Amino acid sequence: MSAPTTDERSEEGVGVPRLVLPCGLTLYNGDCREVLPQISGDVVVTDPPYGLEYAYRSYEDTRENLRELVDAFMPIVLRIADRAVVMPGPTQIGLYPQPEWVGCVTWDTTGTFGKYGYNQWTPILCYGKDLDGFGNVNGITKSDVLRFSGGSAEMIERKKLKDDGIHTCPKPLHMMKRVLQRHTMEGETVIDPFMGSGTTAIACFLMGRKFIGIEQDSEYFNAAAERIRAATAQGDLFLGQNSANQRTNVT
Questions:
Q1: b/e per residue, 56-94, with b = 16+ CB within 10 A?
Q2: Residue 242 domain-assigned?
Q3: Segment 9-50, tens digit of pLDDT
Q4: Which residue positions in the chain have pLDDT lower than 50?
């Protein structure tokens, strides 16, 4: 990764390394439990650890650690943003505070296997008031289910991110773009306390949202920052197209 310029890298305000990119993205290299109380935004969109013994670099992914993490970060999340969209695994729903509603992402691929066969969905815990409007909002049906078909290209992308050591459990870009389209508005500030590989940051840039991301592991943070820089440099060419795509009716 190329070294940040002096106007990008600082430790101002929260006492941890901060990378401010000129496209509305701010990245913090620190523990979300320390950073979250000092920032604010419109909506939190995040994909926390699962407590399933995944091999993260500097976090022990046990269920007990997840329980302690949820108890610490969720009360802060519900204070600093009007809305929150949290994507746990199916067996982790009970560890989280009672949401206003539970939606889901579904897909018809068979890339992962769960305790009861192929895992073809993931829950979305929704906190706070839903977006205004009825029917179609942001060019997407205002539904509590986001459906995906196919996905071979996304599976290849995810495998490459894992094989290259960028992150243990990356989310597909098209999934996070759809989640943002359904649950956020253009121009809003999205906070992700578990930035990981930076997929949500890239989706925010492409969808016209501001972004504040937090990642405690320095290697993940540096890899995500490099990936985000590359994506935003290319994404400038397609912002007009992406804005048009957002207005397309998608279910």
A1: beebebeeeebeebbeebbebbeebbebbbbbbbeebee
A2: yes
A3: 555 567 899 999 989 999 999 999 999 999 999 999 999 998
A4: 1-7, 152-153, 156, 167, 236-251
Domain interval for residue 41: 9-246
Q: Return the SS3 of 239.
A: helix
For residue 153, count other CB atoms closer than 10 A to its CB: 10
C-alpha torsion 227→228→232→235, nearest 10: 60
Type of residue numbered 81 = A
Does residue 172 fall inside a structural domain?
A: yes
Inter-CA distances, 105 with 7, 11, 174, 199, Å = 39, 37, 12, 16
3-state secondary structure of 230: helix
Question: Among residues 43, 44, 1, 35, which one has the least CA distance to residue 15?
Answer: 35
Q: Which of 2, 12, 32 is nearest to 196 (CA)?
A: 32
User: What is the value of pTM for the model shown?
Assistant: 0.84
Domain assignment present for residue 100? The answer is yes
Distance of CA 71 to the CA centre of its chain: 19
Report the domain count for the chain: 1
Beta-strand pair 18-21/101-107 = unpaired
